[in-house]
Amino acid sequence: MNVAVFGLGYVGSVTAACLARIGHQIVGVDRDGYKVDSIRGGRSPFFEPGLDDLIAENSAAGRLTATTSAGEALARADAALVCVGTPSERNGNLNLEQLRRVVADIAVCLKAHPKPFILAIRSTVFPGTCEQVVIPELEGCTGVTVVSNPEFLREGTAVKDFVEPGLLVVGGADAGSVRRIAGLYESLPIQPCLVSLRTAEMIKYACNAFHAVKIAFANEVGALSAALQIDAQEVMSTLCSDDKLNASAAYLKPGFAFGGSCLPKDLRALVYRSRQQDIHLPLLESALPSNGEQLKRGIDAVLARKESRIGVLGLAFKEDTDDLRESPVVSLLEHLIGKGRDVRVHDPYIRIDSIYGTNRNYILNAIPHIGRLMVPEADDLMKWAQCLVIAQKPSGDLARRIAASGLPLVDLVGSSTAIRRT
Question: Could you give the CA distance from residue 405 to residue 326 in angstroms, rounded to a whole number?
């Protein structure tokens, strides 16, 4: 493809040079004459390992050039990738001045010379920016579609990250345009993730936030380990050796609050012991309050329903166990009962007369009359209920029966998609 890359900073220059290496015809665009002259002269405008040679090779081959003129760059282009900066304002919001200016320049050119065109936003922008800022700016431009194509490049390893990507995301409403932009990278060893426009924008933020949380987590574990004269590197390297639960996709799915006999107790112990050491661990200290907010969101979602008879599927803190200790569902039931709601519960592994010890004491202290609320069979619960609260992930057979019931659902564990597919 013939592609114009707007913005020749770290992201734009690496993107332009690497796309040219793949075989596309690339024109870089920037107001900064130094950056443009650097690209034209076969040099990188800044230091990035491997980039100088890449620019020199592709400039010499005629696949990469640069200009300060948007019109010149767009004259033969089939698509444009916008790679301008979106720096923070003092209040933390994004400054979209460069993005607005570039999109406005592109709109002027495309209105003067209409043609089918794809505008891909590679800059990091908050979800909704393409719909609320970019698309309105292009009003009157016929045949133009907008997609989001966020970058996942790290300074210092950006060229390697581009040619050996861990993630490739393209999002948009027009499937053909999404596939066409994904096709820019088809020679790379990666399967593209084709998603919606806002999803693509959000994925970039989710990735960066996760990276920040991982660094903060490792540093807090390191700080506490050091105070306890423990080798933090040994702790974290051992933690990361578990790719089933730790360095994996385990637990990384939106759902209900956590509970059980381990996570809440151990977090409280870590926070208590760190304070004894005069160590402040804001990330770990915030985990239980964050969990409480998720529980509150679940409670509010159920209380927002107008139905009088509410059936709850699941009582233990997760599926396939009878452990009720610190189950968020118990807290949910307490709130619903306190608000006067008519509630019944089914859990395939909970029989109040057969549980014992701390498990039995916990539930009877929280809800003394829980036995009267339990329904032995899921089908009987669904016949009685006017609304179902999904508090545990249902089995395939139960998911089919839930779908067949036609009842409105409040899904607290992210299983609605599976239920709809049955």
Answer: 30
Q: Using the predicted structure, report yes or no on whether residue 220 has a pLDDT greater than 60.
A: yes
Give the per-residue pLDDT at 420: 64
Catalytic residue among 141, 193, 240, 262: 262
The CB density around residue 108, as the number of other CB atoms within 10 Å, is 13
Contact 3, 143 (CB under 8 A): no
pLDDT tens column, 43-89: 999 999 999 999 999 999 999 999 999 999 999 999 999 999 999 99
Residues 147 and 205: their CA atoms lie apart, in Å, by: 16
- Paired tokens of 272: 């208590």
Measured at the CA of 303, the angle between CA 384 and CA 198, to 5 degrees, comes to: 110
Query: DSSP label at 145?
Result: E
Residue 36's closest CA among 44, 47, 48?
A: 44
Q: Which residue has the tokens 């701390």?
A: 358
Is 18 tagged catalytic?
Answer: no
What's the distance, Cα to Cα, between the start and end of the chain in Å?
42
pTM: 0.91
Contacts of range 191-196, beta carbons closer than 8 Å, 24 or more positions apart: 192/168, 193/167, 193/168, 193/169, 194/170, 195/169, 195/170, 195/171, 196/171, 196/172
